[in-house]
Amino acid sequence: MKRNRQIILDYLNQHKVNAKASEGESAEAISVHLNIHRSNVSRELNELVREGLLEKRPGRPVRYRLMKKAAGPAERSSFSALIGHDMSLKNSVQYAKAAILYPQSCMRTMIVGPPGSGKSYFAQAMVSFAKEQGVVPAQPIAAIINCEHYAGDEQGLYEALLGEGLEKNPTHVIQIEHIEAMPTSIRTQFLERLNSQGNDSKTLFIGTCDIGAYMHRMSMFYDYFPIVIQLNSYKDKSIAERLLLLQHFFAMEAASMNKELHLNAELLHSFLIYDCAGNVKQLQKDVRIGTAKAFIRELDRDNRAITLTMSDFPEYVRKGLLNYKIYRSELQVLIPEKYKYIFSGVDLPDGMEKELLEQQNENGSIYDIVNRKVSDLRERGVDPSDITMIINADMEAYFKKYQQQLSGQVVDIEELSKIVNEKLIRLTSDFLEEVSEKCKRAFPETVLYGLCLHLHNTVLKGQGNQLPQNAKILDMVQRYPDEYSFATTFAARIEEEYHIQLPLSEVVFITLFLCEDYYANQFSSRPVVLIAMHGDNAAASISMTVNKYLKESIAYGFDLELDRQAPEAYEALKEKMTTINRGEGIVFVYDTESLKSMGEMASEETGIKLEFVEAPISMLAIECGHSCLMSKSLEEFREHFSAPRAAPDYDIPEQNGQTAVKVILTLCKTGQGGAEQMKQYIESELKDPAVIVKAMVVTGRDELLQEFNQIRKEHEVCCIVGTFEPRLYPRVPFVSISQLFETQKTKLRKLLRLNHEDYLKHNGFYEYLSSSLYDVDIKDIRRLLPDVIARLELLIDEDFTQDQTIGLFMHLACSINRSCAKLEPIINQNTAWIHMQFPELFAQVKKEMNVLEKKFRIRFSDDEAATILSYMKRI
User: Fold this and answer.
1) Which member of 206, 248, 419, 808 has the greatest number of CB atoms within 10 A?
2) Exposed e or buried b for every residue in 135-151, given b needs 16+ CB within 10 A?
3) Torsion of CA 8, 11, 17, 18, to 10 degrees
4) pLDDT in tens, 312-355
5) Strand partners, 717
């Protein structure tokens, strides 16, 4: 019998009540049509809205309609039927499209992956896409040869591959599966024939090969298959993508049986994290084995619903729970335990229905909560060893519920004192203040209330018990060594004051009260502030001040010690962001660009959204220190310090038209020695008498500007090399000391702009652009683009021609103008192919665009990067 939820969805589907065709239906109308009580209809409708299946339309009465996405080109493509087409298969789909749509002829493609990863299925999707695009006919002549089918029949395989059949008969599609199973003698001849045919064939040629064999013979295949598509294993897919596959297979089995399949969360968890060596093919087989076994078990009962249990599936599926601790957080988000999961074969947006389980009373001590969970797992037939593992992994989640329950009992210290005696409140308060001082961390008041109430029950009512196992205690010691140490000391103090013996489990629970990553996530979803600064305790102190002032735990600190290695610091920052995130992103306050870059990388890796706020207090203080070292009075300090903050674009007079000697300036703030060393290095490597390298020491802003102006009048300043950018004249390129010493010596002249022809110096060129580009300031274009193009030129061996330079300049200027005007970007059909051919250079081009992205507040797409690279490589 269908539930109300499914009846309502079927009704809305049948009557086309969707976002395009209807204004929606009211709860009253649905109630009348379906003869379901209005309150039940309203409840189901609101639940469907929360799940994103329905859209609520404001007005009187409120109306509901199905959510429908606009069908774009990607959805019309056969690739969209592949599970993971927008996840792990995203790049694979791009490469496949590039191979099929390549101008004039399809590019031969090799699909590689571990056994059971879906190579043949992906090849079929490529053929379907080729039909859709008109590359091959709707009914193509196809030759599909599986080399494994010819095991022991070498002559038959020879005839199929090298006989007259493929040579004489026109074939639109050739699909050779398991090329690794091809005997060596046949493979050699086959590849030679491919080589003789060249790449001009109109035939769509697809080969598949197991990843191990391909890697072993990669050099052999590389020249014959320009496009290589690698499919990943089941374990390399995200948990979310594994869930999509699992939903698909269970829905298929439910449809074939015409039954509903009921599963609990633990079974789904096992499937999502078990060792599935045979990949997607094995996953489908394991699902089919278990459902078939349950079907036979229920055959005589004629039930509409079949409940699947762990015992229906192979032992290795159940062993997936051994990995539960690693994935617990992600599993609880995707598959919460409070639901029963139902597959009916109906085409639902998420592949399954959820039915809320009867909720047990969650009041009582932490021990009561855990014991109820143990009983529940036993009733579901979970193995005792698995129960222990699940309880240990979920202990912090149970504790979170317990703390929320305790926090709701009191709202202030006055109410707390009516329940808990003054002595215990004072002991606990002193303890938290001590920890706060030592750890530079503020606690919300709810921690004080919760810890007092918990100890009140444990100390005075004797409700303590020994729950956490040794493995959990060891885990707490390793993850929270400082908090565990504080908790141990406090537990001893409580024992001494009240003359009792506390169980070891109490130390674990006191530790959990102190854990920042616990109480950081007990609040409702909202953004939080992360202050990231260089130093030892600066960020921690500021965040503690913020929290004390606001009386909320909303700010967190991350201190980057100056001697900490970058990889270690990055991992620590990523862990910090993951710990404090409450689901709505982080306001990332930073003091240096290096910390911002680390934040950006961590954001991409974790998916946590960041809003950056610059607070360069460290660099400001360093600049103050430099200025003080250059000053003998506050008047001189003000003179030295004010100019760098404004960073004006000084108008330096042009050269007098004479052929100028080329000059490179080296600058250093800390003394003549550093500038002189850079000068000697450049002179020793260049050995060019036509280039003068002049070392300058910064003694004051005005002196530096005066000397620079004098040099600029008489000579051509190619670039400035130094430990800092003086920003005297932005149109002169700046080379940092790290760039100087990291650049290959063969590219040093290019780095120092000695080979650079200035094709972009004519004013008429910029006047033309100024009259054509309305959404950007041409002064910014003139100031930034020449240096960006010079840095792009450094990425390749040859120098840019005049056509390349001007063409690249015009493209970048127009691209920036188009992005600033919020116009649609230009699509490059060869992006995937260019990315595949030049992966490192592609990434370097994207990196060089950062300065333009920051200045104009835009984002260069992969298509733009591919077009830039095509200018550079003359593709």
Assistant:
1) 206
2) bbeeeeeebebebeebe
3) 70
4) 888 888 788 777 767 777 787 788 877 888 888 655 555 678 88
5) 663
Pair 574, 605: CB distance under 8 Å: yes
Average pLDDT, whole number, for the chain? 77
The percent helix, strand, coil of the chain (3-state, each to 5) is 55, 10, 30
DSSP one-letter code for 78: G
Measure the CA–CA gap between 168 and 218, rounded to whole angstroms.
30
Could you give the 3-state DSSP secondary structure of residue 412?
coil
Tens digits of residue pLDDT in 266-294: 889 989 999 999 999 999 999 999 999 88
**C-alpha of 535 from chain center:** 28
The SS3 call for residue 735 is: strand
Query: In this structure, are residues 517 and 602 in contact, taking their beta carbons and an 8 Å threshold?
Result: no
Residue 393: exposure state from Cβ atoms within 10 A (0-12, 13-18, ≥19)? buried
CA distance 64 to 61: 10
Tokens 């790049």 locate to 91
Half-sphere exposure of 142 (CA within 13 A, CB side): 20
**Type and span of the H or E element at 109:** strand 109-113
Strand partners, 589: 531, 613
Q: Is the pLDDT of residue 590 over 80?
A: yes
Q: For residues 158 and 179, what is the distance between their CA atoms, to the nearest angstrom?
A: 13
Helices then strands, counting H and E runs in the chain, come out as 42, 20
Who contacts 75 (Cβ-Cβ below 8 Å, separation ≥6)?
69
> Looking at the predicted structure, is the pLDDT value of residue 657 above 50?
no
Half-sphere exposure of 200 (CA within 13 A, CB side): 3
The pair of structure tokens assigned to 352 is 């399954």
> What are φ and ψ of residue 111, in 5° steps?
-105, 120
Q: Extract the tokens encoding 554.
A: 């909303």
Query: CB neighbours of 586 closer than 8 A, spacing ≥ 6?
Result: 527, 528, 529, 530, 577, 580, 608, 609, 610, 611
Q: Which of 831, 816, 826 is nearest to 866 (CA)?
A: 831
Give, rounded to a whole angstrom, the gap between the first and last alpha carbons of the chain.
Answer: 63
Distance CA 339, CA 334 (A): 11
Q: Which residues contact 490 (CB under 8 A, 6 or more apart)?
A: 431, 510
577 C-beta neighbours (distance < 10 Å), count: 25
pTM over 0.85: no
Cite the DSSP H helix spans in 520-565. Answer: 538-550
**Separation between Cα atoms, residue 511 and residue 534, nearest integer Å:** 29
The 8-class DSSP code of residue 502 comes to: -
CB neighbour list of residue 675: distance below 8 Å, 6 or more residues apart: 666, 667, 668, 695, 696, 697, 722
- Torsion of Cα atoms, 823 then 825 then 826 then 832, to 10°: -170
Helix (H, G, I), strand (E, B) or coil at 652: coil
Write out the H or E segment, with its range, that includes residue 257. helix 239-257
Bigger pLDDT: 773 vs 695: 695
Asked if residue 256 has pLDDT above 70, the reply is yes
Tell me the sheet residues that pair with 351.
none
Of all residues in the chain, the percent with pLDDT exceeding 90 is: 8
**Rounded CA separation 221/214 (Å):** 8
> DSSP letters of 156-181?
HHHHHHHSHHHHHS--SEEEEE-GGG
Q: Judging by DSSP bridges, how do beta strands 109-113 and 204-210 pair with one another?
A: parallel
The DSSP code sequence of 269-285 is HHHHHS--TTHHHHHHH
With beta carbons less than 8 A apart as the criterion, state whether 849 and 865 touch: yes
Give the closest residue to 507 by CA, choosing from 498, 495, 522, 519.
Answer: 495
Query: Does residue 704 register a pLDDT over 80?
Result: no
Nearest to 313 by CA among 393, 378, 246, 388: 246
* Backbone phi, psi, residue 794, to 5°: -65, -20
Residue pair 267/310 in contact (Cβ under 8 Å)? The answer is yes
The number of beta carbons lying within 10 Å of the beta carbon of residue 440 is: 17
Task: Characterize the bridge pairing of strands 54-57 and 63-66.
Answer: antiparallel
